[in-house]
Automatic annotation (TrEMBL), chain A:
Keyword Transmembrane recorded: yes
Topological relation to the membrane, as annotated: Multi-pass membrane protein
Residue ranges constituting the ABC transmembrane type-1 domain according to the UniProt record: 69-269
Keywords, sorted A to Z: Amino-acid transport, Cell membrane, Membrane, Transmembrane, Transmembrane helix, Transport
PANTHER family: L-CYSTINE TRANSPORT SYSTEM PERMEASE PROTEIN TCYL, MEMBRANE COMPONENT OF AMINO ACID ABC TRANSPORTER
Name listed for the protein in its UniProt record: Polar amino acid ABC transporter permease
Automatic annotation (TrEMBL), chain B:
Annotated Pfam families: ABC_tran (PF00005)
Boundaries of every ABC transporter domain copy: 6-250
PANTHER family linked to this entry: AMINO ACID IMPORT ATP-BINDING PROTEIN, L-CYSTINE IMPORT ATP-BINDING PROTEIN TCYN
Identification of the protein by name: ATP-binding protein
InterPro entries xref list: AAA+_ATPase, ABC_ATPase_HisP-typ, ABC_transporter-like_ATP-bd, ABC_transporter-like_CS, MetN_ABC_transporter-like, P-loop_NTPase
Membrane topology: Peripheral membrane protein
GO MF term (any one): ATP binding
Keywords, in A-Z order: ATP-binding, Cell membrane, Membrane, Nucleotide-binding, Transport
Keyword S-adenosyl-L-methionine belongs to the record: no
Keyword flag Membrane: yes
Originating organism: Nocardioides phosphati
Localisation per UniProt entry: Cell membrane
Length: 304, 254
């Protein structure tokens, strides 16, 4: 046999390349500026006599705050659940062959996406002004009994979210190959069963990641219900602060808890996104300078 | 069951102003293997899709096993069928697509089981047993728990055939079932189809596999420009074509 086959030549691996990496002077300079600015800002807040830091610490774990967190989470979860259900219905209506359903869905989206959530919240809460009693025929109830602050908040957030979820779900449905619907129809699936058993399960890949995003956004949006005193985290923090003349401190307390919750959710969200993005190309980041220094020491030079 | 499975009388189909089928007349007998040949764009897929109402016929009559497709005849008037009735008609007509169209979120076994369970209301245990039998028959007993993405094209197409058979159809439609396959995988799918033909299944097969048509078909039809140019036995149409259009097509594919 020949003595210089390609296999024979590569059988001993060459020594790894040891090259001098590119120097990123710009990154170092800008990092120094950022650190300086951030440090200054932090100092001016931390050493500020107008902020009673002991109060912030004391109030961080008050029962009112925890009650508010409970309401905020309940509003987030419930309005997302209702919003997703409503979104699926609206999306299916929008894509149906029935022009009446399409128009209803289109009108709904137009109204609920075209007006601020804050305005919608206040309108639902003040429904009693124009409809003192709700009901049909001889059965009716006092509007103010049905529409509590929490009820109005949930109604407004859920109905608004449904409009946004409808677009996400619609995108998901449209992402599923038309051949799937045809195969199901050819087997004798009805339209509804095709949607439920074949199309929606496949649309999930596209629907789930942005829905995770919506949850994080919703958590922050719930703070708007402070306008109708729905006892969420922000309302509780505000009420407590204004009673005790520690408003700014309470804003910091609320911010802290929002950050905790959004951080947890964002972490879950990015995991979910990775899980559902399987197959799509990975993001390649340029590593150099600071990244290399802090995160890739082992890989670069074996420095522990 | 009537002796004629599919009867097309002067079937027309237009998309907007474009007439794709310009009067198709043909009869597929019970137990017959019926091969449709023709150049691209001649309307073969469209005709096949009309048979299970994936496309709606614009004029003429098309019936399967004695029943009009998509319409009810009351007196001398035609009434459009409700989606539910159309779905019921499709249950008895199996279809196999060029691009397989397996459900990617379900395993091979689930692909074959789902329609009998969810559409026909067959018990899970029974449907599972039947699905395993069918997958064994198409030579995939070992791959029942694989997802479509884990199967080769030929394996996917065989699962798709099993999926259609699970509904116990009286008629099977194949639209270029081997055109999307690598050449070395074509044989395994054709073998399954030959088996099926031997067992007496009524089949309409759109194909460019002239060898398959010659060996298996009872009737071969050559279509061009939305009309049937020539029909007859393989010996007549493939080996001794009468029309120039058939001759020139065959000289290109043979
Ligand atoms: N949904 C549609 N809307 C408009 N035109 C269509 C539609 N489906 C098919 N056509 C047209 O009808 C003609 C026949 O198409 P068809 O798919 O039936 O041909 P075919 O014989 O199956 O060809 P091929 O061998 O390429 O599959 C083509 O010109 C095509 O462009
Ligand atoms: Mg075709």
């Amino acid at each position: 046999m020949a003595t210089t086959t390609p296999a024979a030549r590569t059988s001993t691996a060459p020594a790894p390349i040891k090259a001098v990496p590119i120097r990123h002077y710009g990154q170092w300079a800008s990092a120094a500026v950022v650190l300086l600015l951030a440090g200054g800002l932090l100092y001016s807040v931390a050493a500020n006599d107008n902020i009673q830091w002991s109060v912030v610490g004391d109030y961080m774990f008050r029962p009112e705050i925890f009650h508010g967190i409970g309401i905020t989470l309940a509003l987030t979860v419930l309005s997302m659940v209702l919003g997703v259900i409503g979104g699926v219905l609206l999306a299916v209506m929008r894509l149906s062959g029935n022009p009446v359903l399409r128009a209803v869905s289109g009108g709904y989206l137009w109204i609920f996406r075209g007006t601020p959530v804050l305005v919608q919240i206040v309108i639902w809460f003040n429904l009693a002004l124009v409809f003192p009693r709700l009901g049909v025929g001889s059965f009716s109830v006092d509007t103010n009994h049905v529409i509590s602050p929490f009820g109005a908040a949930l109604l407004a957030l859920a109905l608004n979210e449904a409009a946004y979820m409808a677009e996400i779900v619609r995108g998901g449905i449209l992402s599923v190959d038309q051949g799937q619907t045809e195969a199901a129809h050819a087997l004798g699936y009805s339209g509804a069963k095709t949607m439920r058993l074949i199309v929606l399960p496949q649309a999930m890949r596209v629907i789930v990641p942005p829905t995770g995003n919506e949850v994080v956004t919703m958590l922050k949006t719930t703070a708007l219900v402070y306008a109708i005193g729905a006892a969420d985290l922000f309302t509780e923090a505000y009420n407590f602060g204004s009673k005790n003349f520690t408003l700014f401190e309470m804003y910091l307390v609320a911010s802290f808890w929002y950050l905790v919750m959004t951080t947890v959710l964002s972490t879950l969200q990015s995991r979910l996104e990775k899980k559902y993005a399987k197959g799509s190309h990975a993001v390649t980041t340029r590593t150099g300078g600071i990244t290399r220094l802090f995160f890739l020491r082992n890989a670069q030079g074996g420095v522990a | 069951m009537s002796a004629v499975m599919v009867k097309a009388e002067n079937v027309h189909k237009s998309f907007g102003h474009v007439e794709v089928l310009k009067g198709i007349d043909l009869e597929v007998k019970n137990g017959e293997v019926f091969c449709l040949l023709g150049p691209s764009g001649s309307g073969k897929s469209t005709f096949l899709r009309c048979i299970n109402h994936l496309e709606q016929v614009s004029a003429g009559r098309l019936s399967v096993d004695g029943a009009l497709i998509g319409y009810r005849e009351v007196g001398d008037k035609l009434h459009e069928m409700k989606p539910k009735e159309i779905a019921a008609q499709r249950r008895d007509i199996g279809m196999v697509f060029q691009r397989f169209n397996l459900f990617p979120h379900l395993t091979a076994l689930e692909n074959v089981m789902q329609a009998p369970v969810k559409i026909r209301g067959v018990g899970k245990a029974e449907a599972r047993e039947q699905a395993l039998r069918l997958l064994d028959r198409v030579g995939l007993a070992e791959r029942v728990d694989n997802y479509p993405g884990q199967l080769s094209g030929g394996q996917q197409q065989r699962v798709a055939i099993a999926r259609a058979l699970a509904m116990k159809p009286k008629l099977m439609l194949f639209d270029e079932p081997t055109s999307a396959l690598d050449p070395e995988l074509v044989g395994e799918v054709l073998d399954v189809m030959k088996d099926l033909a031997r067992e007496g299944m009524t089949m309409i097969v759109v194909t460019h596999e002239i060898g398959f048509a010659r060996e298996v078909a009872d009737t071969v039809v050559f279509m061009d420009g939305g009309v049937v140019v020539e029909a007859g036995s393989p010996a007549e149409v493939i080996d001794a074509p009468q029309h120039d259009r058939t001759k020139s097509f065959l000289s290109k594919v043979l």
